[in-house]
Amino acid sequence: MMKTLFSRFFQRTAQYLPILYVNRLKVTRKHLKPLLNDQMPLEITYSPVSVGQLRLWLTFGESMKSMTALGFSEKQLDDIKGVFFDTSLWLFLITMFVTFFHLLFDVLAFKSDISFWRGRKTMVGLSTRTLEWTC
To answer: Does pLDDT of 9 surpass 60?
Structure first.
């Protein structure tokens, strides 16, 4: 694996250079192009990021390494990267918000079902359709 985090310390002046992070997480197979000749265009983009965002990217990169060690294919890793980097941040956050509430309501409904069936001593008052529907 190639190194993605670069920094340098000067002992004489006791100063660090800024951290340079090469973000390979946003590169997927659909971005790769075959080399047809010896020349190719090179585009370098530099932008500052917060320490929190850098930590998130480093954690995500380590997760990708773990998934590779577990046997995930390159295509599966690209699909996972696409969920996080190819979609809009707002769409992703709204999806997470809706998913959270859906899970919350499922847990509450399941809790209600358990308390209902736990308190039942007989099946009086329940139709067979209701029993078939809940099972």
So the answer is: yes
pLDDT at 31 over 90: no
Average pLDDT score over residue span 70-89: 86
Residues in the chain: 135
Cα distances (angstroms) measured from residue 19 to each of 43, 47, 48, 72, 88: 20, 11, 10, 30, 27
pTM > 0.85 = no
What single DSSP character describes residue 5?
A: E
Q: Are 19 and 7 in contact (CB under 8 A)?
A: yes
Q: How far is CA 81 from CA 52, 55, 84, in A?
A: 19, 17, 5
Is the confidence at residue 114, as pLDDT, over 90?
no
Q: DSSP per residue over 27-46, as a string?
A: --GGG-----SS--------
3-state SS class at 20 = strand
